[in-house]
């Protein structure tokens, strides 16, 4: 196995150059992680990363951040987009762009807070095509080569890349991955679907990922499945020979997946949701939309009326589902937790609170996380000593 040590100063300035590890030297230094939480739009935020690390994840990516969004954010607020934390390592920050200057600028801004900077060549969505980032850039290898080469030379941490496979053209897929490695990438994560297979449609071609792994001398991660259990994880590792498995949907559905916990019962998922919300309460930077997303994923088949109607069930919890799906109802971890506890109370779950949670109307009004006073109908009561009482 070949490992490389690359200077991050321009050629010709080698005297006194600091060196950094890349490839397998870097990979071993961060612990040779095998179980990887994928970059997700919004949903691999710090609270969720802490949750999956508790249950076996050994490497996490931040949510995908578009470089233009990062650079348009006030300097003092930029790190809030990735939420760095000393206990959240190893960590790879993923950016999406088609501009090499922007990628370098973003990388420099975060390189002291992470273990690598990743270039997104995997997003297949229409927004990515429209704004010219993600998987569509795989059709422009010269542009990608310039971005990766500069990043490998100028950043103080390794550059990594997440890519997809080409449609029934494994030779082209391997050649593209080789180009990334030769340009200075220290790791390549390969999703086994093409750019046209959006929303996880169609077959995930593990055999194509395996060909990339056998052709490169840097770490390779396998992505795509479906990966729903640790049995699937081991099957993917065996089929591809990769250094690790990157998982997204499987972890959203079961954050304990890497811990060999295959209990996806409603009781267990509600317990996982409450554990996640405890993490969100600890990390005040957790975005409200991320919390609502996790509530929707974990509670869908428990409280979604559409799901129940399709399965000839009831919609007793339609009020909870409407609240979870509203962009104006839930803003804090406290509110989200009260919704989960309300469901636990209704289901007589072992983790239900000793006393009934507040009425939903009161939960919705408590945006600051302070429990208001309410009557039996969930209406706010006058609070003695409040601002309204002052002259």
Automatic annotation (TrEMBL):
Cofactor (UniProt): FMN
A Pfam family the protein falls into: Dus
NADP keyword on record: yes
The enzyme's E.C. designation: 1.3.1.88
GO MF annotation list: flavin adenine dinucleotide binding; tRNA dihydrouridine synthase activity
Keywords noted in UniProt: Flavoprotein, FMN, NAD, NADP, Oxidoreductase, tRNA processing
DUS-like FMN-binding domain: residues covered: 37-291
Stated name of the protein: tRNA-dihydrouridine(16/17) synthase [NAD(P)(+)]
Organism: Hemiselmis andersenii
């Amino acid at each position: 196995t070949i490992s490389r040590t690359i200077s991050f100063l321009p050629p010709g300035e080698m005297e006194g150059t600091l060196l950094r590890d890349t490839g397998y030297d870097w990979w071993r230094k961060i612990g040779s992680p095998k179980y990887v939480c994928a970059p997700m739009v919004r949903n691999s935020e710090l609270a969720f990363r802490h949750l999956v690390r508790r249950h076996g994840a050994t490497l996490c990516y931040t949510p995908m951040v578009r470089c233009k969004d990062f650079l348009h954010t006030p300097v003092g607020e930029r790190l809030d987009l990735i939420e760095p934390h000393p206990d959240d390592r190893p960590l790879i920050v993923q950016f999406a762009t088609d501009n090499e200057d922007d990628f370098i600028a973003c990388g420099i801004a975060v390189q002291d807070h992470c273990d690598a900077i990743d270039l997104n060549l995997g997003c297949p969505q229409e927004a990515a095509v429209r704004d010219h980032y993600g998987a569509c850039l795989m059709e422009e290898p010269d542009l990608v080569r310039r971005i990766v080469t500069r990043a490998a030379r100028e950043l103080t941490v390794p550059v990594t890349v997440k890519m997809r496979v080409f449609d029934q053209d494994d030779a082209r897929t391997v050649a593209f991955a080789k180009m990334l490695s030769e340009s200075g990438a220290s790791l390549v994560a390969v999703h086994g679907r093409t750019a046209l297979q959006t929303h996880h449609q169609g077959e995930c071609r593990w055999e194509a990922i395996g060909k990339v792994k056998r052709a490169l001398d840097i770490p390779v991660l396998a992505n795509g499945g479906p990966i729903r259990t640790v049995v699937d994880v081991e099957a993917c590792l065996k089929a591809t020979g990769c250094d690790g498995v990157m998982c997204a949907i499987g972890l959203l559905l079961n954050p304990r997946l890497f811990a060999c916990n295959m209990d996806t019962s409603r009781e267990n998922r509600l317990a996982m949701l409450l554990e996640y919300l405890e993490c969100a309460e600890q990390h005040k930077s957790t975005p409200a939309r991320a919390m609502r997303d996790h509530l929707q994923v974990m509670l869908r088949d428990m409280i979604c009326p559409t799901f129940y109607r399709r399965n000839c069930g009831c919609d007793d919890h339609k009020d909870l589902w409407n609240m979870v799906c509203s962009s104006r109802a839930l803003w804090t971890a406290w509110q989200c937790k009260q919704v989960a506890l309300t469901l636990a109370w209704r289901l007589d779950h072992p983790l239900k609170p000793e006393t009934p949670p507040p009425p939903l109307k009161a939960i919705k009004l408590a945006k600051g996380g302070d429990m208001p006073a309410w009557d039996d109908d969930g209406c706010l009561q006058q609070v003695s000593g409040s601002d309204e009482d002052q002259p």
